[in-house]
Specification:
- The protein has 2 domains: 2-111, Nucleoside Triphosphate Pyrophosphohydrolase; 161-189.
- The chain is an alpha+beta fold.
- The longest helix has 47 residues, at 112-158.
- Helices cover 46% and strands 21% of the residues.
- The protein contains 4 helices and 7 strands; from the N terminus they run ββββαββαβαα.
- Strands 1, 2, 3, 4, 5, 6 and 7 form a 7-stranded mixed β-sheet that branches.
- The chain is rod-shaped.
- Keywords: Membrane, Transmembrane, Transmembrane helix.
- This is NUDIX domain-containing protein.
- InterPro entries: NUDIX_hydrolase-like_dom_sf.
- The chain crosses the membrane at residues 135-154.
Length: 191
């Protein structure tokens, strides 16, 4: 048997149904979906179930995952992003109540496999954001090293950087000490 589950979000909220059927799901939250009929594809089924159960005609579904469960059920997850005003148009057309939940405040009694799929979706979104941040930091670091290197090279060419680490500096220091002592002795002792 094949089933589909459609996760609908606006990027901030997720649309869930408080289930009454089947008995093992009663009182739990699940996404819209249902059984795939023999003459239908999973995509056709999620489009039809979404329209029949919550009144939304969504065609921009993306297949998220497909699992073969130990009990032989083939479960296909779909994902759709809607605008906020579109997701708010969802309404219960069956005895199962439509509810919107903040992605950071999902109900405790959500089906575990659905929760894992939702986390996978939003983890990927965060990961992309994290990659952008890391790329930005990398580029800024490269630019900093590049500009610092150019500044150092400029000072070395002018002779005013790393000068203190050279032998010339030591020789000049010795010369200055000699001149200082000579000047000091001349002033004090008149020599």
């Amino acid at each position: 048997m094949r089933y589909v589950v459609g996760i609908i979000t606006d990027g901030k909220k997720v649309l869930l149904l408080k289930k009454n059927n089947p008995d093992w799901q009663k009182g739990l939250y699940n996404a819209v979906g249902g059984k795939v009929e023999l003459e239908s594809t999973p995509l056709q089924t999620i489009i039809k179930d979404c329209k029949d159960k919550i009144g939304l005609d969504i065609i921009n579904w993306k297949e998220l995952d497909s699992l073969l469960l130990p009990n032989g059920i083939d479960l296909t997850y779909f994902f759709a992003i809607l605008e906020e005003n579109d997701i708010n148009k969802a309404q219960s057309l069956t005895d199962e109540r439509v509810e919107l939940f903040d992605i950071n405040n999902l109900p405790k009694n959500i089906l575990k496999d659905l929760k894992m799929q939702i986390d996978k979706i939003f983890f990927k979104i965060e990961k992309k954001d994290s990659i952008s941040k890391k790329l930005f930091i990398f580029i800024v670091t490269i630019l900093f090293v590049l500009f610092s290197s150019l500044m150092l090279l400029g000072k070395v060419q002018k002779g005013n950087f790393l000068y203190y680490l050279t032998e010339e500096k030591k020789d000049e220091d010795i010369d200055k000490k000699v001149q200082f002592k000579k000047g000091f002795n001349e002033r004090i002792f008149g020599k």
